[in-house]
Amino acid sequence: MYCLILKKNKKEWTLDGEAHRTKGPAINFSNGEKWWATKGRMNRDHNLPAVERPNGTKEYWINGQEYNLQENGTREFIDLFGKLNREDLPAVEYANGDKEFWLDGKRHRSDGPAVIYGNKQYWFINGVFIKCIV
Description:
The chain is mostly beta strands. The protein has strands spanning 2-6, 10-15, 18-19, 27-29, 34-35, 37-38, 41-42, 51-52, 58-62, 65-69, 75-77, 92-93, 99-100, 102-103, 106-107, 115-117, 120-125, 128-133. Strands 1, 2, 3, 4, 5, 8, 9, 10, 11, 12, 13, 16, 17 and 18 form a 14-stranded antiparallel beta sheet that branches. Strands 6-7 form a two-stranded antiparallel ribbon. A two-stranded antiparallel ribbon has the order 14-15.
C-alpha cells in the first residue's frame, strides 16, 4: 500500500513499507535535504542526483548503487571500499558509449570483453589481460 508518513523532521512516501516515489523525492527532510528512492533503494535516473543536501552536495545512485558523475558525463560505479565494482553491468560508462566492466577493483568479465572502446574489445579475467580484438 502506498502512503505518506509525516514525522517531526521528515515526510516519507512508502510503498509496502519501503521508501518509494516515482515523481519527486521519496523523503523530504525539514532541513531541505531530499532523497529519491524506489522500492527501498536509492535511485534516480538520467544522471540526476538521488540525494540533494542543503549545502549543495549531491550523491548519484541508481538501483541502490552509488556512482561518481564526472563533468564529461562519465559514470563510475564504486563500492564501499572505493573500488570500481559492478556485477553484470559496466562499472565505467563513458558519455561516448565506451564501457569498462570491473569487479572488486579489477577489470573482469567472464561472458565477453571487459573493455569496449569504440570497435576495440579487450578481454580480462580478474584483472588479467586475455586478448584484444581491434
